[in-house]
């Protein structure tokens, strides 16, 4: 019941009421467009033919022009001019323009226009934009100096043309730029202009697109054009965007300048090394901690493990990326003092600590989207993560250390990601496997391919024993052991659970994918925190009507649990890009079902044996000792399935889907039903 | 020589300056109470878990919100937070973000520290960053952001800060008691602005053991809560505001009426006068009516024609906001005549036009103020007029009440949008109005009918056509959801919707062009469908699952644990009729028995029949639940499990001589 308190009314109401919620604020943002004419370059695009597209294309990029000019003071000015034709309601999003600035990059201007199919033009300017730099505290990225100026162009209706211009001035850390001319929508024409002072040179490298030669302009100006570039539409499990989208990377080479664009991976490596150099020097506190952590550890490996475990789990991931801080690690002493840091910091601190036990290590940069950087990629800063390569001393010989890169120059290098708090030393999270990483070294940094672990290192192995009663109720228990990434996924899920009683929910979800009605009567989790051990679920459950009756028959689905099939290729449109799996995997299931007294096996599902280069699937159901015994193995052997194998992959998944629904038929033991006798395979 | 008078003045000036300096130093040093941290119980340092919150990553050991709304000066709110970190996951609470509006709020006196289980204190002396959440010409929302150092499992995180509110601003205060973490103890205090009456309420009740806020002799309202569970978000739960423990404070210039009936009568009279004035254009309405109905029309025919005419008027509430933003010259309507002439208006304008026209047509008609139940459940005793946030119309037809909302685009005649059903409404009249209750549509008025006509092929695939008819509320919902999309997107969404209903991979192609822009009772979609591997073989037998349209229930209420009540927007019913023609030579070996589950408020039935060369499956699901308390959840969960079990049943077929399904 509410209570009321009264006061005398004496003043006019000057109360301005609004709720500023501690959790966030709502912003009403109204664009005040003026009706100024759109510029001539946009009007010239009215009526031009649009590039080829299908009915699902939201918009087309009619015109794209990027101009990079090197100023006499060495700063870089970039001018972008774009115009798009909105084709569908979904294309309205292209009328939201984002200008980015940071401590080194100044946004000089942003303007936008709309030419409606009917009526007058609209214009919006800087003052109509909003600014935002929403921090991402939840994921640990605490502070960045990146600011976004967001401009909404009015009237982004189908049939209308929207366009904008953005001008920036930047003090580049490296004299390198990339022209990203391929979009998710078709591009009619895209231009890149390069204006350099006399004496400057450039090096252009193309990726995922046939090279186009430039034309010269002025004293030291160059111009590139591409036309009718098809759009890249998202497909599930497609390779990284960077790995398929056309781009040109331009490195600027001033005469005699120390600061220049990267001509090789070694250049980039050397630059990264310079930034990190000296940062791993150990403080007395670090030395003391190393001594404390390694005290009583007899072997080098056990010492490495102790230090890795400390950095992985005790140093909290927090990213504070200001200016060069996006590329440069903090000093180890600072990271240790705060007990927090980002991926660069965690790698640097571990490197510092390892040095104290005379184990060498080398920082490595990588892009967590496999395929974003490949052996064919132009050398550029396309890395978003730092990990550590630990040079294994000769006395460290343990087959559990699977994530080992070997070469003649560096010997055995254990690849370790201290930011990944769950994957233990010796293993590697799927997206990093088979990925390309760059050793951060003073002069001979090299892009190398990270190891791909054997399929057996990652997988789900279930063993289940069940009893079926005459009413069709199934009772039994399952031991579900998970290795590698499946273990990581469940540990991650469990970490996010905030109530002990909710720990059962992931198990219920797993079961609900295969069973309609069930009741878990007992459940436990094993090795949740022992991350070098397999993660384990054990659950006992009852399925009241598992076997269905049909006349005198009893129908029993033999693949009780688990979904290996995927509908990734069940689309109307033809697949355009290869399928990229997260990582190799080998799963196995074995379920034994004791059949009820008075019943015998009448029919069994057919066995399945499929072998492809990318994967295999084998399953069978046997009848033995009054039991139905279902067993299967599922294996992903290759990380990428090329387009040529899409039909095989589709068939692969369809056969698995069918097998997962395979049903055994039981009949009363004494009865003669039809002409079929009990069979076993 | 210095005169005595001057000497005295200098001394006074000196003393005054010393006092100012001391005062300034005091304010600088003591912005939030400097280092007056609350004492720490040694048991809290040692604790590794909280028995009342097992598994919690962290808990609030203590929270304090102490607000002074004194209006002109010292208008502040002290926030004090003490968190115990219990797991690695809980360390994330060491990242602190304090949002605020630059225009009317400042933040001062941020202090923070980490305390290790051994009692070691690490004061925060790092940088406090200021992040821009959003900044525009008129608004600037920022956040003070920092992270505490050396936070480990077992650490206590502690911080405090002061919100400094601008002078002359008064806020509707709210104490949010339910937090994302379990709270061991929380103290709240508010010294309200004395010049305006304030009222407070607790819409979702109070936590067990918490006494209602009480005002002390110092005019400060206080409350202490102990052991408040963490707030949990769940599927199908009522609006958060309805279930989160919170105290809402409301000021009013006019004061509060202690008798809710009197309060609403007074409010209703004002509203009545305003709306009557808006509708007072009889001559114009008579002319408009003449253009709308025929003289010989019955009352109901007239109403339907007026309804259809009003639905043609552009409702600005249903337009995209960025579309409206460009129309700077829009002039709000001042009367129903304006609405009629401009053919554009707000939802309220359109409903008032409907009332005016129907009255001129001689039909008893009322304007209704409603409380939508999408964000909160109305309680008239709270006397919060803002909760009457929707409107509709009540007409008398043949002595019966009929609720209409012509302003809602695509709403069929006689159908209100779901949020306006089953809610209290104030029917305005001269006396201030009468409370009425809108009707909750029957489940049959929110029906999905799926008719499938398939052929089973030798390899177990199904191929055929499906016709889906959405009726009443569901047709309205679908049209509203798709109103900004084009036909390509609508087609894709409809196809995805049917794919979702089929529990396995299916190829679905929409064949017809559904009527998206009308207010028809029904929305019909027709598809070609292919389902590979629907039937599976076991030796010479083929097993045909019955639950072809069971996908939507596959994961509904799959968990046994439930904290919050269950909330459905409307009652609903689905009827599925599937006919599957068998390949030549195939026979039905056996069919499962009919399954019927009657759970009173919900009903499910699935049955298969032999139709001579084909199997016909009939499946119905009816839900007549709007709100169900959490203690009934096990029954509801069991019901949905029985549905899934029923859907898993299979018909046993016998193949012909040369067939082989995979």
Per the principal axes of the C-alpha atoms, what is the gross shape of chain A? Answer: globular
Mean pLDDT of chain B, nearest integer? Answer: 90
Strand content of chain A: 35-45%
Number of strands of chain A: 39
Terminal CA distance of chain A: 72 Å
Low-pLDDT segments, ≥5 res of chain B: 1-8, 16-34
Radius of gyration of chain A: 31 Å
The proportion of strand residues of chain B reads 25-35%
Low-confidence stretches of chain A: 1-31, 675-681
**Biggest chain contact:** A-B, 116 and 120 residues
- Report on the biggest sheet of chain A: 8 strands, mixed
Structure explained in plain terms:
The complex is a heterodimer of chains A (681) and B (662). Chain A has three domains: 7-261, Immunoglobulin-like, CATH 2.60.40; 266-453, Roll (C8orf32 fold), CATH 3.10.620; 456-668, Jelly Rolls (Sandwich), CATH 2.60.120. In chain A, the strands form nine sheets. An eight-stranded mixed beta sheet of chain A has the order 6-5-10-3-2-12-15-14, with no helix packed on it. Chain A has an eight-stranded mixed beta sheet with strand order 28-29-27-26-33-37-36-35. In chain A, helix 5 (300-314) runs antiparallel to helix 7 and helix 6 (332-338) packs across helix 7 (343-356). In chain A, strand 36 (615-624) and strand 37 (627-636) form a beta hairpin. The N and C termini of chain A lie far apart (72 Å). Chain A has ten helices and 39 strands. By secondary structure, chain A is an alpha+beta fold. Chain B has 662 residues and is α+β, with helices and mostly antiparallel strands. Helix content of chain B is 21%, strand content 33%. An eight-stranded mixed beta sheet of chain B has the order 5-4-8-2-1-10-13-12, with no helix packed on it. In chain B, strands 24-25-23-22-29-33-32-31 form an eight-stranded mixed beta sheet. In chain B, a hairpin with a 6-residue loop joins strand 20 and strand 21. In chain B, helix 5 (282-290) crosses helix 9 (347-360), helix 6 (299-311) packs antiparallel against helix 9 (347-360) and helix 8 packs across helix 9. The model of chain B is unreliable at 1-8 and 16-34 (pLDDT under 50).
């Amino acid at each position: 019941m509410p209570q009321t308190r009264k006061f005398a009314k004496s003043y006019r109401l000057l109360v301005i009421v609004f709720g500023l919620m501690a959790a966030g604020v709502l912003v009403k943002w109204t664009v005040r467009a003026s009706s100024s004419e759109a510029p001539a370059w946009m009007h010239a695009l009215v009526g031009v033919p649009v590039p080829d597209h299908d009915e699902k294309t939201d918009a087309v990029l009619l015109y794209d022009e990027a101009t990079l000019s090197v100023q006499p003071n060495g700063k870089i000015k970039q001018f972008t001019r774009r115009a798009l034709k909105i084709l569908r309601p979904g294309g309205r999003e292209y009328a939201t323009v984002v200008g980015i600035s940071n401590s080194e990059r100044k946004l000089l201007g942003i303007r936008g226009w709309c030419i409606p199919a009917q009526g007058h033009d609209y214009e919006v300017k800087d003052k109509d934009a909003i600014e935002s730099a929403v921090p991402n505290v939840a994921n640990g990225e605490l502070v960045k100096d990146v600011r976004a100026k967001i401009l909404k162009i009015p009237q982004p209706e189908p049939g209308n043309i929207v366009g904008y211009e953005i001008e920036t001035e930047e003090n580049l850390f490296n004299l390198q730029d990339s022209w990203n001319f391929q979009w998710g929508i078709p591009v009619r024409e895209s231009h890149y202009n390069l204006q350099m002072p006399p004496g400057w040179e450039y090096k252009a490298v193309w990726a995922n697109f046939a090279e186009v030669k430039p034309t010269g302009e002025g004293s030291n100006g160059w111009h590139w054009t591409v036309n009718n570039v098809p759009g890249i539409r998202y497909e599930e499990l497609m390779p990284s965007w960077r790995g398929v989208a056309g781009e040109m990377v331009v490195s600027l080479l001033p005469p005699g300048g120390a600061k220049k664009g990267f001509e090789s991976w070694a250049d980039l490596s050397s630059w990264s090394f310079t930034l990190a150099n000296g940062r791993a020097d150990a403080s007395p506190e670090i030395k003391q901690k190393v001594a404390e952590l390694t005290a009583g550890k007899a072997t080098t490996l056990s010492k490495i493990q102790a230090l890795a475990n400390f950095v992985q789990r005790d140093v909290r991931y927090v990213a504070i990326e200001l200016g060069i801080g996006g590329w440069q690690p903090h000093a180890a002493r600072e990271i240790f003092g705060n007990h927090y840091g980002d991926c660069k910091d965690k790698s640097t601190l571990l490197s510092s600590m390892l040095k104290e036990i005379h184990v060498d290590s080398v920082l490595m940069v990588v892009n967590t989207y496999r395929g974003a950087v490949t052996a064919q990629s132009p050398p550029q800063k396309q890395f978003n993560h730092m990990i550590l390569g630990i040079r294994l001393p000769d006395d460290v010989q343990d087959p559990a250390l699977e994530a080992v890169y070997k070469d003649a120059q560096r010997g055995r290098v254990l690849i370790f990601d201290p930011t990944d708090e769950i994957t233990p030393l010796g293993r590697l999270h799927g997206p990093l496997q088979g990925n390309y990483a760059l050793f951060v070294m003073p002069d001979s940094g090299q892009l190398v391919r990270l190891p791909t672990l054997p399929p057996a290192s990652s997988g789900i192995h279930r063993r289940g024993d069940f009893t079926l009663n005459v009413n069709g109720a199934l009772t039994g228990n399952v031991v579900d052991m998970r290795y590698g990434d499946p273990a990581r996924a469940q540990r991650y899920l469990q970490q996010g659970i905030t109530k002990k009683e909710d720990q059962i929910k992931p198990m219920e979800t797993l079961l609900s994918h295969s069973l309609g009605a069930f009741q878990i009567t007992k459940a436990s989790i094993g090795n949740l925190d022992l991350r070098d051990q397999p993660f384990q679920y054990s659950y006992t459950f009852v399925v009241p009507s598992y076997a269905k009756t049909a006349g005198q028959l009893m129908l029993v689905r033999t693949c009780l649990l688990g979904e290996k099939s995927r509908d990734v290729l069940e689309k109307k449109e033809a697949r355009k890009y290869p399928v990229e799996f997260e990582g190799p995997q080998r799963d196995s299931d074995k379920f034994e079902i004791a059949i009820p007294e008075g019943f015998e096996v009448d029919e069994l599902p057919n066995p399945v044996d499929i072998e492809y280069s990318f994967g295999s699937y084998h399953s069978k159901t046997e009848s033995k000792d009054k039991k139905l015994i279902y067993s299967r193995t599922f294996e992903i052997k290759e990380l990428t399935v090329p387009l040529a194998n899409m039909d095989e992959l589709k068939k692969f998944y369809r056969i698995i889907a069918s097998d997962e629904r395979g049903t055994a038929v039981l009949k009363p033991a004494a009865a003669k039903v039809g002409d079929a006798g009990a069979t076993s395979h | 020589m210095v005169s005595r008078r001057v000497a005295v003045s200098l001394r006074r000036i000196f003393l005054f300056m010393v006092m100012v300096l001391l005062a300034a130093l005091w304010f600088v040093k003591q912005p939030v109470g400097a280092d007056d941290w609350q004492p720490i119980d040694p048991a809290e340092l040692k604790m590794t878990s909280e028995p009342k919150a097992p598994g919690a990553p962290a808990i609030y050991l203590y929270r304090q919100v102490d607000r002074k709304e004194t209006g002109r000066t010292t208008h502040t709110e002290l926030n004090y937070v003490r968190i115990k970190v219990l797991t690695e996951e809980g360390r994330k609470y060491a990242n602190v973000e304090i949002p605020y509006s630059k225009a009317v709020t400042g933040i001062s006196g941020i202090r923070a520290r980490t305390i290790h289980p051994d009692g070691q204190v690490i004061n925060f002396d790092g940088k406090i960053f200021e992040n821009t959440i959003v900044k525009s010409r008129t608004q600037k929302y920022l956040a003070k952001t920092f992270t505490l150092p050396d936070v480990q499992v077992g650490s206590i995180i502690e911080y405090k800060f002061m919100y400094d509110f601008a002078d002359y601003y008064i806020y509707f205060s709210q104490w949010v008691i339910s937090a994302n973490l379990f709270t061991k103890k929380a103290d709240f205090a508010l010294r309200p602005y004395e010049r305006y009456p304030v009222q407070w309420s607790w819409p979702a009740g109070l936590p067990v053991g918490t006494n209602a806020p009480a005002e002390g002799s110092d005019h400060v309202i206080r409350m202490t809560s102990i052991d408040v569970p963490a707030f949990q978000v769940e599927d199908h739960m009522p609006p958060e505001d309805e279930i989160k423990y919170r105290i809402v404070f409301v000021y009013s210039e006019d004061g509060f009426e202690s008798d809710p009936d009197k309060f609403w009568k007074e409010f209703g009279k004002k509203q009545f006068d305003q709306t009557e004035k808006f509708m007072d254009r009889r001559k114009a309405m008579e002319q408009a009516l003449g253009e709308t109905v025929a003289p010989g029309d019955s009352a109901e025919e007239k109403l339907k024609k007026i309804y259809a005419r009003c639905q043609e008027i552009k409702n600005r509430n249903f337009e995209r906001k960025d579309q409206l933003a460009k129309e700077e010259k829009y002039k709000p309507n001042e009367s129903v005549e304006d609405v009629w002439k401009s053919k554009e208006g707000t939802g309220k304008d359109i409903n008032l036009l409907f009332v005016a026209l129907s009255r001129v047509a001689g039909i008893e008609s009322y304007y209704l103020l409603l409380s939508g139940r999408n964000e909160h459940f109305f309680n008239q005793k709270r006397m919060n007029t803002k909760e009457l946030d929707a409107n509709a119309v009540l007409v008398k037809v043949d002595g019966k009440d009929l609720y209409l909302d012509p302003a809602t685009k695509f709403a069929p005649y006689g159908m209100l949008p779901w949020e306006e059903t089953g809610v209290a409404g104030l029917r305005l009249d001269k006396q201030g109005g009468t409370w009425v209750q809108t009707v909750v549509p029957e489940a049959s008025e929110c029906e999905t009918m799926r008719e499938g006509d398939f052929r089973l092929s030798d390899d177990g695939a199904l191929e055929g056509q499906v016709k889906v008819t959405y009726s009443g509320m569901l047709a309205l919902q679908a049209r509203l959801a798709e109103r900004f999309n084009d036909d390509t997107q609508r087609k894709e969404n409809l196809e995805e919707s049917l794919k979702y209903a089929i529990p396995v991979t299916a190829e679905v192609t929409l064949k017809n062009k559904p009527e998206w822009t009308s207010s028809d009772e029904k929305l019909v979609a027709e598809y070609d469908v292919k389902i590979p591997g629907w039937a599976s073989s076991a030796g010479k037998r083929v097993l045909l699952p019955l639950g072809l349209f069971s996908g939507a229930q596959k994961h509904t209420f799959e968990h046994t644990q439930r904290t919050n009540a269950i909330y459905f927007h409307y009652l609903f019913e689905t009827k599925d009729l599937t006919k599957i023609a068998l390949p030549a030579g195939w026979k039905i070996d056996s069919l499962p028995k009919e399954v019927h589950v009657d759970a009173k408020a919900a009903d499910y039935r699935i049955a298969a029949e032999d139709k001579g060369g084909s199997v016909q499956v009939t499946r119905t699901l009816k839900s007549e639940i709007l709100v169900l308390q959490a203690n009934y959840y096990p029954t509801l969960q069991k019901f949905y499990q029985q549905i899934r079990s029923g859907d898993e049943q299979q018909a046993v077929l016998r193949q012909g001589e040369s067939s082989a399904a995979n």
